[in-house]
Amino acid sequence: MTAERENEEITIGGCSVIDLAREFGTPSFILDEADFKSRAHQWRDGLEKHFGDHAGIAYYAAKAFISTDVARWIAECGLGLDVCTGGELAVAIAANFPPARMEMHGNNKSEAEIAAAIEYRVGTIVMDSLQEIDRVARIAHTKGVVQKVLLRLTPGIEAHTHEAISTAHKDVKFGFSIASGAAWDAVLATSKHDSLQLQGFHAHIGSQIFVTDAFETSATRLIGMLARYKEEFGTELPELDLGGGYGIAYVDEDDPISPETTLSKLSSIVTQECKKNQISIPSISIEPGRAIVGPAMITLYEVGTTKEVQLDDGSSRWYISVDGGMSDNLRTGLYQAEYSLSLANRESCADLRSARIVGKHCETGDIIIRDVQVPSDIVPGDLLATPATGAYGRSMASNYNHMVRPPVICVHNQTARIMIRRETHADLLALEIDDAPRTLPPSKKGQE
Question: How many Cβ atoms sit within 10 Å of the Cβ of residue 4?
């Protein structure tokens, strides 16, 4: 990210945080366009470098953060787009994203979502249950389409991450287990439908992962399934999607793996395992999301109050309250996530002391950072910046306590513009209507 200190204050994309706060208010998400695009190119170029003719698509995971601008950036950078819901699909459609470079995920896609994806000619649908196999097949048949599909498999891996974002062990809602035989049952179920074209397999082992061993194990087990398919059907499946989950640095102790290291190791294990199983190397796709947008964004807050709280053991805790909170950063509450913090509007020579950074919501758990060293002279009106909030900050934001969600401000070459505006109280009230009471018609079942 192009964040640095100039004249004591932090600038990002060449824009002063003081000027950004004055122009757009706080809290605000500040997105560095150049940094975002640079990371997108690193993953796409790395995939092509290490897999060559076998390079598939680097799909940007929309769940991390999506807008029409971001969808257009992704298209310009030559990446694909992974969507999980009708809402994410609607953003892609509004941005005219190339449908052939899209895939649709989700463990419980509605019929309307499936139909919309097929109508837009989304390149690949990743199927997640036996009922969904039948559902996608039926809708595709009705529309006269042979839909390309992948099966999401769970390779039985305990990824080194928080339980809530570990998605490839046995007891999860996602995919078909390889170990239990459910994965092969899904292959057989898919093969019965003329309206489905099975392209290969997909796995996503979790999020915020800092080592490659779990990715390598997942690739090995998926390739074993490709080999079994060749043995049983006499043909080879052409695609393998190894998912995402690559971690980023939130605090100094975090040591993320680079695209170069990740893709080099994946290339080696894929080549080795395909040779061992005597199958061709398939087209390899990946799904970086957090690794692209996460480090490219900061959240800018203003301090409202500070408070010294005496504890039972005789010590005290310094609480610094800002004008946002769990409505713009839910990760601390959900995953016990950790963040760093910078005093953004000035430099300070004051001694550092421990503080807890909290929001303004009616929850004791409304904590942004549980314990962080900050200058001891922080006062109301100071600006605080939390880096690496691009992934899951705005996308998980809520209106709890009827807080309006912050804007996303794009900075680039010393300019700033609104990508997503700040919500208003009028927006919240617009959802309320004076609807007349109605008598509901009896169901058909009740009439029988």
Answer: 9
Contact present, 215 and 161 (Cβ < 8 Å): no
Q: Which residues sit opposite 200 in a β-bridge?
A: 150, 239
Among 445, 397, 440, residue whose Cα is nearest residue 422: 397
Q: What is the pLDDT along the chain (448 residues), one digit of tens a residue?
A: 567 777 789 999 999 999 999 999 999 999 999 999 999 999 999 999 999 999 999 999 999 999 999 999 999 999 999 999 999 999 999 999 999 999 999 999 999 999 999 999 999 999 999 999 999 999 999 999 999 999 999 988 765 443 443 444 467 788 999 999 999 999 999 999 999 999 999 998 877 777 778 888 889 999 999 999 999 999 999 999 999 888 888 888 887 888 999 999 999 999 999 999 999 999 999 999 999 999 999 999 999 999 999 998 989 999 999 999 999 999 999 889 999 999 999 999 999 999 999 999 999 999 999 999 999 999 999 999 999 999 999 999 999 999 999 999 999 999 999 999 999 999 999 999 999 999 999 887 655 5
List Cβ neighbours of 40 (8 Å cut-off, separation of 6 or more).
58, 60, 73, 74, 77, 79, 292
CA 384 to CA 18: how far, in whole Å?
11
- 274, 349, 362, 410: which one is catalytic? 362
- Concerning whether 362 is annotated as a catalytic residue, the answer is yes
d(CA 340, CA 328): 16
- Write the CB contacts of 417 (distance below 8 Å, at least 6 apart in sequence): 409, 410
* Strand ranges for 311-407 from DSSP E: 316-322, 342-343, 352-358, 367-375, 383-387
For the chain, the residue count is 448
> Do 75 and 98 form a contact (C-beta atoms < 8 A)?
yes
Cα separations in angstroms, 244 against 58, 176, 226, 284, 416: 10, 18, 20, 12, 30
CB atoms within 10 A of CB 352: 11
Catalogue all structural domains in the chain, each as residue range(s) with its CATH number.
3-27+295-429 (2.40.37.10), 33-288 (3.20.20.10)
Contact 408, 419 (CB under 8 A): yes
The model carries a pTM of 0.92
Report the SS3 class of residue 170.
coil
Q: How many angstroms separate the CA atoms of 192 and 262, rounded?
A: 37
